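Final report, closing paragraph on structural work. Over the funding period we assembled a curated collection of sequence-structure pairs, and we close with a single example.
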Amino acid sequence: MECQKKDTCHHGKVLEGARPGWPEALTALGIYLIGIIMLGVRMLQIPDEQAILRINIGGLGNGLVGLVALFAAYILKVRNLRAFGFRVAERKWLLVGAALGVAAFIGCFIIEGVYFHFITEPNNQADFQVAAKGGVFSLFVLIITGAILTPLGEEFVFRGVIANTLNRYGAWAGVVGSAAVFGIVHGFNVILFDAFMVGILTGILFRKTNSIWPGVVVHIIYNALNLLYYSTL
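Its predicted structure, as stored:
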């Protein structure tokens, strides 16, 4: 007997809970926040003269923390990666994800243009900009850590677990609710609004496809274009 679309079976047995619930969501979010705080403390200990090292440790750490948080949610009860969105996505949705990644990159200029018209704050992307302008090798490493590993870790947690859980309560909870959590985790600054926008787009794709991969494509394209843009400043 083949597993149905909603993973109602697994090796001939009925799964209890075809998607993660509150225990998984709270576990993943809690571990992610603890890991990010610990990572942030470590990064603060690295001097400004090593900004490139600092930001790459941050990107690598973010990806690993997301993976650990996903694994913690996985081992609680469901133990089926398909239930967390690890499903093959149709090519058309991956292409949609790529297009939305470009749209999100353009959208962040609008968001930040409006935001900085009313609010002045320190540049919280300075380390990214330094690393992006540090030469070809520095930019290459930054793309790996900041535009691949970071999106993977964040999508595992915020779409694979949190949006997945909130989708039980409808589109507003699943898409807007998870995007709000995603934005707040990025801090109370302009990046909150950028992250909220990305969270809305990836949340819609996740709800539409039940796969994390189209949203991962959005996130990777968005981050990569921002880093490439920083390299030109």
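The first helix runs from residue 22 to 44. The chain is about 70% helix and 0% strand. We thank the funder for supporting this effort.
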